[in-house]
Specification:
By secondary structure, the chain is of the alpha/beta class. The protein has 3 domains: 167 residues, Uridine Diphospho-n-acetylenolpyruvylglucosamine Reductase, domain 3 (2-Layer Sandwich), CATH 3.30.465; 175 residues, FAD-linked oxidase, cap domain/gating helix (Vanillyl-alcohol Oxidase, Chain A, domain 3); 316 residues, no CATH class. Helix content is 44%, strand content 13%. The protein has a 7-stranded antiparallel β-sheet with strand order 14-11-13-12-16-17-15, with helices on both faces. Strands 5, 6, 7, 8, 9 and 10 form a 6-stranded antiparallel β-sheet that branches. The longest helix is centred in the last third of the chain and has 22 residues. The protein is globular, with a radius of gyration of 29 Å. It starts with a helix and ends in a 9-residue tail after the last helix.
């Protein structure tokens, strides 16, 4: 059967992915298993989900749902049909002033919290992967996290759920009529649920075991507490879906209770001589009201001690030491201080290596939490190349945690896991440990198998703990569910699965499996590939910020493809290698914006853009490099030609209508795809200002970027004139040199991989700026943030050169002189990528708030995908990248729309129909006092 063709009876072809590159890159998630799906589909409606269930039954092909792909236990991979929910299903609807929130399965937890932030609320689950983990997975794994414990996990904060059964039927616990309808339309399932409920209530031993196990974190098997917590079969069914890992039904939406986002926080890193002593401090912290108590052993701290900003004490800690990352929170400062003071009173008796120090500084707190949340990827990054990183997730009674960790460390030594680390949510007794090894030989696989066989009785029998506390059973612990739960509970789980999914087609092998060796099969290989990305453990944290995520690939998938290419090469599979390499050209290289935002989201700063730029560089012929250098050496001529072409295009639009050039270039692109598109909002080249020679006490050298000199957004004022006016209004002298035309920062060449041409243009501009700034005495202002970022990263022998972005200029130099302003605008902002990379995002917001009456930053604001000229060559990239942000902007009432890069302003104007312009124009409009320019 041609599965792609058969699926087209259910879904349009563009949402069915059967190319090898799609199947192979979706076949990997954050865990250490790999399966190659037959097809990847992207449904958008409940009707399509129902049709896929029917297709699965008719053809006996397994179906697996996947959200963010952050699962760690093998529950989001399949050799059947993989249903990707990450492109759609992104509904977020706060209800009742944020007391509740209705969510779709394809929205990240972080985005839900962003939408709840105006209400000072958040969802209960707070996994460290919340920036990438999607609500379908958070619910299906019964996620908890660092602060939520058991009380605020997904199960306990669920109010309503809407789901589709594999045999057909959609039900919603928010609809009172569905309770009777469930009994009528699903009599077999309802009867079996009622029968199981009766048997559990009658079995005192089983009933008490269930109660005991769910007082602490536990995600092994199905959520059997649903049989005790709820009476009606529909309610029981609804809550069984939480933690069912997509094996029972499809969760179409859910409504959750939210919890307060406490505004006052105090965070500290406490150091102890050893793990046992650290564990002994947990009761005191819990009694004092600590919201979070995160344990980190010395090995885990060693992996992050070099991170800039980390406490200096880390590097001098003794080998056996440990630390607790502790946070107190409060509704107000008084209650926060009361809780903190309760702990500080008993702290001297806790045998800490240093006195307890807490901080309320938001930046310091963010750093500490970023390091803790990134421990798993960070440790994975320092593993030996070619090995796989495995994160296990167990729970012990808190009062026995110290002894259990001692046994665990002995086990590491016994099996040679000398680089293992221990960290986790100590307040809940929930411990994660990371080991690394290769699965390349039977000997290594056997070592892991023997290790797990020794671990299970220690956790279950010796300490009465849980083999999985929050990461889900998956394939990893499926062989040991009966070991933890016993025969009676295990039989209940099997009857439950058989009643709801008799053919066992919904995520088979997950939670329940007759194969006692399933945890040792389909193990992922991580071959050594490239220095830029070998540290990647495929956690997926990078994916939500990638501008091409909804068009082609994400950084993780680009890296997976490179690894598969290596494996195919080693296996001698030249056909598949050629096929994948050909598909990678567009998906992996041409549509990567190389914006580097993935590095900011990655705990170990992997910039997939660096890889892409190198691959582009290596793909260039000698002739292409010579042509690029020719353009660089004669950039004055190139600039004039571009300006002339843009002027001609603008003239054609005036004669034949404002879309004439868009239609013309579209026709040319059909014949010559490499020809750049003409955006509808492109208004031709701007008028160049005359040379200015500044004077006075306060002076700057102003360098209009080449894109500012060449591009004009339709209807927008000239950015160069606006900056000169702003400087004049506050009495800052401006030097605008005559010989600036024809120079460029080189970003245009850098993003394309023309290294020599880039270096030539950058060096030429830097030498000129050094001269114009009087060897660094005067600051140099650039008006496009991405150009500023490029120059700041390549100053080399001109370290004394002070380069200011337009945002820095407005914030540092203009604001102190701009007391008399008219704040009449409610503005909408598009912060460009470079602001995040230069850590000037806060300045951008502060400038807008100074000059505007109201400021809105869309929660979906991200990279626009323009990437210099990439949006002209691949306009589909920009359209995909801006889609969510544009929809949000169109729903917001704004008087003005501002950014800090003309190409991004053009992209956002194109996407939204709103006239974006430089932030300097907002300052120009708001400054009411005009001084003559100091010349």
């Amino acid at each position: 059967m041609d599965i792609g063709k058969a699926l087209q009876e259910l879904l349009p072809a563009e949402r069915i992915r059967t190319r090898y590159i799609d199947r192979v890159t979706f076949g990997s998630d954050a865990g250490f298993y790999f399966l190659l799906p037959k097809a990847v589909v992207q449904p958008i409606s409940e009707e399509e989900i129902g049709a896929l269930f029917g297709f699965s039954r008719r053809h006996s092909i397994p179906l697996v749902f996947r959200g963010g792909g952050t699962s760690l236990s093998g529950q989001a991979v399949t050799d059947g049909i993989l249903v990707d929910l990450s492109r759609h299903w992104r509904r977020v609807e706060p209800l009742g002033a944020g007391q509740l929130v209705r969510v779709g399965p394809g929205v990240t937890g972080a985005m839900v919290n962003a939408r709840l932030k105006p209400f000072c609320r958040k969802i209960g689950p707070d996994p460290s992967s919340i920036g990438a983990a999607m609500m379908g997975g958070i619910l299906s794994n019964n996620s908890s996290g660092m602060c939520c414990g058991v009380a605020n996990n997904a199960y306990h904060t669920l109010k309503h759920i809407r789901f589709i059964l594999p045999g057909g039927g959609t039900f919603d616990t928010a609809d009172a009529a569905d309770y009777d309808r469930f009994l009528r339309e699903c009599p077999g399932i309802a009867a079996e649920l009622a029968s199981l409920q009766t048997e559990i209530h009658a079995d005192t031993e089983l009933r008490e075991k269930i109660r005991k196990k769910y007082r602490t974190k536990n995600t092994v098997g199905y959520s059997l507490n649903a049989f005790l917590d709820y009476a009606h079969p529909l309610d029981v069914m609804a809550h069984l879906l939480v933690g069912a890992e997509g094996t029972l039904a499809f969760i179409a939406s859910a409504t959750l209770h939210t919890i307060p986002q406490l505004p006052f926080r105090s965070t500290g890193l406490l150091y102890f001589p050893d793990l046992h002593t650290a564990c002994g401090a947990i009761p005191a912290l819990t009694q004092a009201g600590a919201e979070a108590v995160e344990l980190m052993d010395r090995a885990s701290l060693r992996a992050v001690e070099g991170v800039p900003g980390m406490p200096s004490e880390l590097k001098s800690l003794p080998p056996e030491s440990a630390a607790l990352l502790v946070e107190f929170q409060g509704e107000d400062a008084d209650r926060l201080n009361q809780r903190l003071d309760r702990f500080l009173q008993v702290a001297p008796g806790l045998s800490m290596l240093y006195p307890a120090v807490f901080t309320g500084d938001a930046a310091e707190q963010e750093l500490l939490w970023k390091v803790r949340k990134g421990l798993f990827p960070s440790v994975g990054a320092v593993r030996k190349s070619g090995t796989t990183v495995i994160l296990e997730d167990i729970a012990f009674p808190v009062d026995r945690l110290g002894d259990a960790l001692a046994d665990l460390r002995m086990l590491f030594g016994e099996f040679g896991y000398d680089d293992a680390i221990i960290f986790g949510h100590a307040k809940d007794g929930n411990i994660h440990f990371v080991i690394t090894q290769s699965f390349g030989t039977p000997v290594e696989v056997d070592r892991y198998a023997r290790f797990i066989d020794r671990l299970v009785p220690i956790v279950v029998d010796k300490y009465g703990g849980a083999l999985k506390a929050e990461h889900g059973t998956g394939r990893n612990m499926a062989p040991f569910v009966e070991t933890e739960w016993g025969a009676a509970a295990y039989a209940v789980m099997h009857r439950l699965k058989a009643a709801i999914d008799p053919p066992n087609l919904l995520n088979p092998g997950v939670i329940l499996s007759p194969d006692r060796q399933i945890h040792l099969k389909d193990l992922k290989q991580l071959p050594v590939v490239e220095a830029e990305v070998d540290k990647c453990i495929e956690c997926g944290y990078c994916e939500p910020v990638c501008p091409s995520r909804d068009l082609t690939m994400t950084p993780r998938r680009r890296i997976v493809a490179r690894r598969v290419l290596k494996l195919l090469e080693a296996a001698g599979d030249t056909g598949r290698h050629r096929e994948l390499l050909g598909q990678y050209e567009y998906d992996g290289l041409e549509t990567c914006a190389v914006d580097g935002l993935c590095a900011g989201a990655c705990p170990v700063d992997i910039n997939t853009g660096d890889l892409v730029k190198r691959l582009r560089r290596e793909s260039h012929s000698a002739l292409a490099n010579r042509r690029a250098m020719l353009a660089a050496r004669h950039f004055v001529t190139a600039e004039r030609l571009v300006r002339t072409g843009l002027a001609a295009g603008a003239a054609i639009n005036r004669l034949f209508g404002d879309r004439a050039m868009t239609r013309l270039t579209g026709a040319i692109r059909r014949l010559f795809p490499a020809f750049p598109a003409w955006p509808v909002r492109l208004g031709g080249a701007p008028r160049l200002p005359k040379q200015v020679a500044g004077s006075g006490e306060r002076q700057i050298v102003y360098v209009p970027s080449c894109v500012t000199r060449m591009l004009r957004v339709e209807g927008a004022d000239n950015t160069m004139d606006a900056l000169l006016r702003v400087a004049g209004k506050v009495g800052i002298g401006v030097i605008l040199p005559e010989n600036i035309h024809g120079v460029c920062c080189g970003q245009l060449f850098s993003s394309k991989g023309f290294a020599a041409a880039y270096q030539y243009t950058a060096d030429r501009l830097l030498a000129l700026l050094w001269e114009l700034s009087q060897q660094g005495r005067l600051p140099v202002v650039m008006d496009v943030s991405s150009c500023t970022y490029t120059m700041l990263n390549d100053r080399k022998r001109f370290d004394g050169l002070k380069i200011l972005d337009v945002v820095d200029f407005l914030h540092d130099m203009v604001l102190p002189l701009a007391a008399d302003v008219r704040r009449t605008h409610n503005v909408v902002l598009h912060p460009v990528c470079s602001l995040h990379k230069m850590n000037t995002y806060g300045k951008f917001i502060a400038v807008a708030r100074h000059f505007a009456a109201g400021v809105t930053v869309p929660v979906h604001a991200g990279c626009c995908g323009m990437a210099g000229d990439r949006g002209f060559l691949f306009p589909e990239l920009t359209a995909a990248a801006t889609d969510s942000e544009a929809a949000e902007v169109r729903s917001v009432a704004g008087d003005g729309y501002y950014s800090s890069a003309v190409s991004c302003e053009l992209a956002m104007f194109e996407a939204t129909g709103k006239a974006y312009s430089s932030i300097v124009r907002l300052a120009d409009a708001a400054l009411s006092v005009y001084l003559e320019p100091v010349c």
